């Protein structure tokens, strides 16, 4: 019971942490966007790893291990953030960096648990590492499933109660802090129960099922290599890129070989067909790595570097390490399974090293890609219209935007390049495509304004459209009775900000129905969600109708502040 309470408390704290982050108050405070991003990494890694290890090694050791894992991940995340442009496209710039951070957070956990239980000298105890790693996978999978079932039950309960006029649950779970705190607590409880019942809910059933895939993957890989020889090395483009498909099947082969050799020889595959399939995949893996490298190099030669191709190359290097290690282990004869396990430990360390390199200037994928594409343009190997200008502007961070600036200096002597660049607008230092005038006019017509109010500034409309994915999203779609579902009020709401600010009210099922926008350096910024501090039983539809009729006032909120020592301290709203 004590362990369950610890899991529930830590999970609830995790949920409240993420609620505090999403409130938006930090973003305009001292930390800034980069600080908030770094804090999010720190909290995610600490709570995620702490919950994973708590049931096995206890609260004190799990907390210490989580801190030790979170510190390097946080520092490297902060370093990586220095090359990013914070805005709507942040996640587009972080695809592979998030994978590197995930590696830094997850790979050390089994090692930390072994050290906590057996001491530093036993850090490479493979049976324990294998068990801890797969236990974490199964526990988190079961706990997330439990959380989904709980929320489904709460939703159905809410619907049932509302059918008889009781909306208590719906009103309660409109409180974000409660919803996230409860989610964390339920997840923690699920992890605690699964840990207690690890003999009943163990990963070994899953591992036995995965073993059955060995012959299938082996046959597919052999047929592919035979077809490659018969086709004289030609590969037809089907579905994903060649290199991506080859990398995926190579990673599957690595996983299956690791599953087949298990923790100890007496637990490894015994059936002849499974054993032969394991040996075959171990020996063929270097060939898969070589074909993957050849396919990736063809793409790079034809199309230049992109961040995705840099990531593919890193993965191919790691696959080659596994492949060479596995092949040598098998070819040396007896005790090859024990050598495969040692290769897995060595490659786990190599994986961590690659993740660190990716998050530092040692492997700056955005810079590599930007230099490559500009060099191809300057060499005449690519037409201006074929340059990945949108990707450079949106997804390649500051390096990509510096590349756009470099190309703009070349545009005066190349009309085709100037035309290509003209489609890439710049906002807040980040190049972003503008929403068309006709589409903006359509959005403007859907937003109700107070009588006599001036037209919504085009820059504000652009910000609202981009924040909400207009015109693809159903933003501000009128209700069944043709009533407007959005309204906007502009007024000088915050004396500390220049000019007027704007409040956008929505009644279209939005998670955050009231948003605040303000001007910063001549562009509009989403200042976060607003909340009602009185009249909580009213509806957003009634608010929108009142605004459209001019039945509103700009009034003081009634909150007083403490002013001392050059600072103004404002109480947080509940």
From TrEMBL:
Entry keyword set: Membrane, Transmembrane, Transmembrane helix
Protein name as annotated: DUF4153 domain-containing protein
TM regions (residue ranges): 37-55, 62-81, 96-116, 137-157, 177-197, 209-230, 242-261, 273-297, 309-331, 343-363
The keyword Transmembrane appears for this protein: yes
Organism phylogeny: Bacteria, Pseudomonadati, Pseudomonadota, Alphaproteobacteria, Rhodobacterales
